[in-house]
């Protein structure tokens, strides 16, 4: 029993150590490359979301990298990349669409996805080690490879579930703020073009291997929530 449990416990502990180091490294990079986002053109939609959340303000930071992305840091801070803000300033993304990204990231924070990801990451390491030992008994040399593939399927499914949850939170928040879900859907419709992933091989990847749901599925889920909650526009 000890021979079986010891590798799993080591893998679990190592997963926690790696996650903690990753969080520290990410926070350090964000601190060095970020400033608070202050843009008068965004103030009206930000104020509406703050009122909907019963907060004095929603604080967002500008992460100085060229990619088009938004993220929620493990410490709860919300970031929009300079690349995304540049698209807004160029008129290719509206204030309401950018607000939908911020609402989505707020959803990750409010729903505790950062903490959940830490637990998942640690368990993932233990699960991979356990499967590798078990499968390796029957398929030598390929146990680790197969275990890694099976584990990635599980974690990808969990990641997609978190994205759907954050999308639903954003839809509810945007509706309460009087912004509506249409900017959320219109942004998704143009997101692949903005991020430069339209037509790439990743677009043909099977849904069950992706960490994020397909754009069409996310839009369908938003529309389903609109109907369920009686939200128009």
TrEMBL record:
A Pfam family this chain is assigned to: Peptidase_M48
A Gene Ontology term for the protein's cellular component: membrane
Annotated ranges, domain Peptidase M48: 39-224
Coiled coil segments of this chain: none
Taxonomy, superkingdom: Bacteria
Free-text remark on how the cofactor is bound: Binds 1 zinc ion per subunit.
Cofactors required: Zn(2+)
Keyword entries, A-Z: Hydrolase, Metal-binding, Metalloprotease, Protease, Zinc
GO biological-process terms attached to the record: proteolysis involved in protein catabolic process
InterPro entries for the chain: Mito/Outer_Membr_Metalloprot, Peptidase_M48
GO molecular function terms noted in the UniProt entry: metal ion binding; metalloendopeptidase activity
Family under the similarity heading: Belongs to the peptidase M48 family.
Protein name: M48 family metallopeptidase
Source species of the chain: Pseudoroseicyclus tamaricis
Species lineage: Bacteria, Pseudomonadati, Pseudomonadota, Alphaproteobacteria, Rhodobacterales
């Amino acid at each position: 029993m000890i021979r079986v449990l010891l590798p799993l416990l080591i893998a679990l502990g190592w997963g926690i150590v790696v996650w903690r180091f990753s969080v520290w490294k990410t926070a350090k990079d964000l601190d060095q490359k970020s400033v608070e986002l202050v843009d008068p053109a965004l103030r009206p939609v930000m104020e509406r979301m703050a009122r909907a959340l019963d907060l004095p303000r929603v604080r967002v930071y500008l992460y100085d990298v060229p990619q088009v992305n938004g993220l929620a840091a493990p410490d709860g801070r919300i970031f929009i990349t300079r690349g995304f803000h540049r698209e807004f300033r160029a008129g290719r993304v509206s204030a309401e669409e950018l607000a939908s990204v911020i609402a989505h990231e707020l959803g990750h924070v409010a729903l505790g996805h950062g903490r959940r990801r830490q637990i998942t990451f640690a368990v993932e390491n233990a699960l991979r080690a356990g499967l590798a030992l078990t499968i390796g008994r029957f398929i030598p040399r390929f146990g680790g490879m197969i275990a890694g593939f099976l584990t990635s399927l599980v974690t990808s499914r969990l990641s997609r579930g978190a994205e759907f949850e954050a999308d639903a939170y954003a839809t509810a928040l945007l509706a309460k703020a009087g912004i509506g879900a249409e900017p959320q859907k219109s942004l998704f419709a143009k997101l692949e073009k903005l991020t430069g992933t339209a037509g790439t091989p990743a677009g043909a990847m099977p849904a069950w291997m992706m960490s994020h749901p397909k754009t069409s599925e996310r839009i369908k889920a938003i529309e389903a929530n609109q109907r369920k909650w009686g939200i128009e526009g």
